[in-house]
Every structure is written in C-alpha cells, then in structure tokens.
Specification:
Elements lengths: L5 E2 L3 E6 L2 E6 L4 E5 L1 H9 L7 H11 L5 H17 L3 E2 L2
Antiparallel strand pairs: 1-5, 2-3, 3-4
Helix pairs in contact: 2-3
Length: about 90
C-alpha cells in the first residue's frame, strides 16, 4: 500500500467557510484548500495510513466520483502539498 505523507509539524491548519488555509510558519507559505482538499488533509496520518484507505473513506462521501478520478485528484493534491513543503514523508 502507498504510504501517505504526514502534515508538516510546522504547518497550521485553519478551517474557513469554503475550505481551509494552511500556513507553513517557517517558510511563510499560505495554501488554500477547497472542501475536498480540506477533507483529504484531515484524513492524512494518523487518521489514514495509506492511500487506499484515504480514497476508500473519500469514496463514502463523494459517491458520484469515479474511484480512479478520486485517486488521481488525491495524488495531484499530495504532489502540490509536497512541492510546497506542507507534508513530510511518513
């Protein structure tokens, strides 16, 4: 199973009306999340350990989204979070 990265310990998570904002304090990086992105962030370890578990949990909520589309969207967001140093390897 694909191990998920963990939220970087230096990143603050702040829910807002239409999603959430991440702030990496040391790097001064702001990153906005929509509702789906917020849910993905909340499912990162320790909640879910692997990509398959996270996608299965999301599929319960977003039943109208094809599993392969959902997985691709999750991977795209994880790449963006990694590029912005908002997550660290588990």
């Amino acid at each position: 199973p694909s191990m998920l990265p963990r939220p970087h310990p230096g990143v603050l998570f702040k829910p807002v009306s239409d999603g959430a904002v991440l702030l990496h304090v040391e790097e001064e990086i702001y990153f906005g999340l929509n509702d789906v992105g917020t849910r993905i962030w909340q499912l990162l370890p320790p909640t879910c350990a692997c990509l398959e578990d996270l996608c299965a949990r999301l599929s319960e909520t977003y039943t109208e989204v094809a599993p392969e589309v959902l997985r691709a969207d999750v991977l795209e967001l994880l790449d963006q979070l990694e590029e912005n140093q908002l997550v660290v390897a588990s």
